[in-house]
Amino acid sequence: MEITGEQRRRAEANRLAALEKRKRLAEAAAARDGEWKLSGCQKTSTQALPRGDVPPLQQGPRAPVEQPCRFRVVLEICSPDEFCVTPQPLPGFSFPGEAECFRKIDACLSSAAVLCCTEIMGQRKTSIYKLKDYEIISGHLRRLQGLQLHEVPYKTRMAIEKSCCHFAGERWTSGRAPHLPDNEVDELLSKLPKLLRDALLPFQLEGVRFGLRRGGSCLIADEMGLGKTIQAIAIACCFISEGPILVICPAVLRFSWAEELEHWVPFCLPTDIHLVFGHQDNVDHLERFPKVVVISYTMLHRLRRSMLKRHWALVIVDESHNIRCTKKALECEE
């Protein structure tokens, strides 16, 4: 069947009407999307612009978000009867600075009648307080706003209290080493032989100072190969004039300690170093007491009575992890 001219005109009119309707719907949708996008933007200009010439929106610099100022205060045991208070940055918060932290700490503790001294330890500044005032100081610091307190465990403090006393004359007396000021530490360091002083690396010299500040009572926990032996010898050399030195070490290291002592302490002759291998080497049998006695853990246990009778200026415990309360044999029979 052929299409008449009237039918063609109606079909063309329907097609044009459909196209016009689709165009109007698209324009209405675009207008709605444009209004929604611009509703959340700041108006940049009131000047009318030709259609199509829309300038890019300019955003100003964002204001920096200020982090609240908080810091951590670490309480650490630094000697048998003292502890230190050290401020440190707290991750995720702005650090107000060391001077401001100490100002807040001093203001918080101003009402507490406690003794305090300031000390520079490495790159940090710290305040030293007496261990007997721990509860007073920690109680005041807990009430300070913007501070996170890292305390010493109660069991640790009690263990230090008990281990720093000994029984003498029917009563307990303190066996604590004093906390020495820097001028006395420098005086002790002046006693070191030049060979030993020049051989100490900066971090080793700081370790020696750390031990001397605490009267020789310290734990040197550097990793293997960093010079724990030379630091221990340097500390012992500062106290060798006050009495004999006792070195406790595994049996296989006795000769090594004797060689190290002879090398770094020139005034310590081979006759001044006594090695204990058996009961025949008991110090009670010596006519002249040596400057240094080197003994193994096994022989120390066997000769403990004679060793405890002596007054030692300093005791060096090498490989101190061997000290434990177990029944496992630590070294072979000698």
Automatic annotation (TrEMBL):
The keyword Hydrolase applies. PROSITE patterns: HELICASE_ATP_BIND_1. Residues 209-334 form the Helicase ATP-binding domain. Keywords: Hydrolase. It holds the Pfam family SNF2-rel_dom. One of its GO terms (cellular component) is nuclear replication fork. GO terms for molecular function: ATP binding; DNA endonuclease activity; hydrolase activity. Signal peptide: none annotated. GO terms for biological process: DNA repair; replication fork processing. This is Helicase ATP-binding domain-containing protein. It comes from Colocasia esculenta (Wild taro).
